Amino acid sequence: MRTNVLLKAFIVGAVAVAFIIPLTMIWGVVKDRSRYRDTVTAEVARSTAQSQTLVGPLVVVRYREILPATVKGGAEQVREGVDVLLPDSLRIHSNARVEMRQRGIYRVPVFRSATGFAAAFTLPPRLGLDQRRLVEEPRAEVVFGVSDPRGIRAIPDVKLDGAILEPRTGAGLGWLKHGFSVALPPDATGRLVAVDGTLELMGTDRLMFLPIGAVTDVEVSSDWPHPGFVGAFLPDERSVSTRGFRAHWKLSRFATGVDDAMARIRDGMSRGAPMTAEGGGGAPAFPSTDLGVRFVQPVDVYAQSERAVKYGILFVFLTFVAFFLFEVLRRMAVHPIQYALCGAALALFFLLLVSLSEHLPFVVSYLIASGACVGLAAFYVGHVLGSVTRGALFGGLLGTLYGFLYVILQSEDYALLLGALLLFAALAIVMIITRHVDWYRLSEQPPNTPGGSS
User: Which of 278, 319, 306, 324 is nearest to 437 (CA)?
Assistant: First the structure.
């Protein structure tokens, strides 16, 4: 008879382990719904505009020059060249207004930004070119680049020293394909020029800027209360409230490394790098030193539901331990099928959670799902153990577990610590409750069958 308790513990453990299968299936459902949500988000981005990165303004100089013959008596060659001049100072101020686009049950944030820019360029005489080697007069233009040109819903406003210039589509560089440009007048060379204007840009997910000035000053504000600051540089100043956010960056060329990037580009061009179809050189592009903001969804219900499912087997195990202690210490016979039915109620909680959270706030979904499962388990266990009080006690313990799980889900940075503390507390409680139990003698006593279990 001594093996009865051990055999029952083994059977209960096997039933608990078997619940890995339905929990894995529920985890797969969560992943599928998350992928479907991402697909819907991508569809909205394709129908509006993708994430946006604004580059510019840059002064691009295109020229054709005669190269000396490489061998004696050889013919001279004509090479097409491109040079890029960076601003001495660049100031950007962008205000983004976020609106929600509905697609089925999903809502996707889409931003509309009004971006003002002001840049100062010191243009060298003759644009720094050797006029004796030129085949024709060079062409200089101010170029702006964007990631997705579909987001430019209005004609950009560009001014040179206060005079309005007419923009043209396309950036015309191999490493900066999309955007727009304006032609510089011939009298702009050999002096300090100021370029300013505004650009209305539409996009999804994130709004980024490339700090290309010798000194770059960027300020971004929005009515979106859930920003995520991303890129190579975090803002020097930020303020976030329920009414929106404001962030400010100030950088120099020593931090961004943009001069080194331009030196690599010029070096690639000087070695005769092949020209692309857009007219740009095949030189390296700018480094990944962008900065900006993501318009983050406040609660990712699928990420939280996925994390909750990962604790599912722990919940089943702890619940079975409590059920097993009731059975052993009160000398009551509980069938493995009754364990399985109680575990099914626990597993169903996670499916209810993810399905409800698609339509309701996560905290409301969690309260409804946990309340329903705790109530069902307490009702069933009360009849299995033949006592409403025992069922209520079991429900209270289960409700405490659900409360602790919610705390873990909300405290991502401390999830491991809280999970370890929960396991330690559960083990300590079991050891304290069973410290006086004589397991050998307990195995020799026949169990009682509760009247309410049939």
Answer: 324
Question: Could you give the maximum distance between any two Cα atoms of the chain, in Å?
Answer: 113
pLDDT of 277 reads 33
d(CA 37, CA 106): 7
Outline where DSSP puts E strands in 40-185.
Answer: 52-67, 77-85, 89-103, 106-122, 139-145, 157-160, 163-165, 168-169, 179-183
Note the pLDDT tens digit of each residue in 52-105: 888 878 888 777 767 665 555 556 666 667 778 888 889 999 999 988 887 777
Rg (CA), the chain: 34
pLDDT at 221: 92
Which residues does residue 61 pair with via DSSP β-bridges, in sequence order? 83, 140
**CA dist., res. 354 & res. 305, Å (int):** 6
Nearest to 57 by CA among 9, 6, 118, 122: 118
Sheet holding 215-222, edge to edge: 163-165, 157-160, 192-204, 106-122, 89-103, 215-222, 244-252, 237-241
How far apart (Å, rounded) are the C-alpha atoms in residues 407 and 384?
30
Q: Which residues pair with 108 in a beta bridge?
A: 101
HSE at residue 119, side-chain half, CA atoms within 13 A, is 28
For the chain, what is the mean pLDDT?
77
Model confidence over 158-173: pLDDT tens digits? 888 878 888 888 777 7
Per-residue model confidence as pLDDT tens digits over 402-415: 887 888 777 766 76
The backbone region for 200, taken as left when phi is positive above 0, alpha when psi lies in -120 to 50, beta otherwise, is beta
103 closest CA partner among 32, 42, 161, 153: 42
Q: How far apart are CA 246 and CA 227, in angstroms?
A: 9
Q: Is the pTM of this model over 0.85?
A: no
Tokens of 206: 């994130």
Residue 437 is encoded by which pair of tokens? 């139990």
Which residues are CB-contacts of 270 (< 8 A; sequence separation ≥ 6)?
none
Of 51-65, 246-260, 323-337, least confident by mean pLDDT is: 323-337
Contact 96, 116 (CB under 8 A): no
Q: How many CB atoms sit inside 10 A of residue 232's CB? A: 15
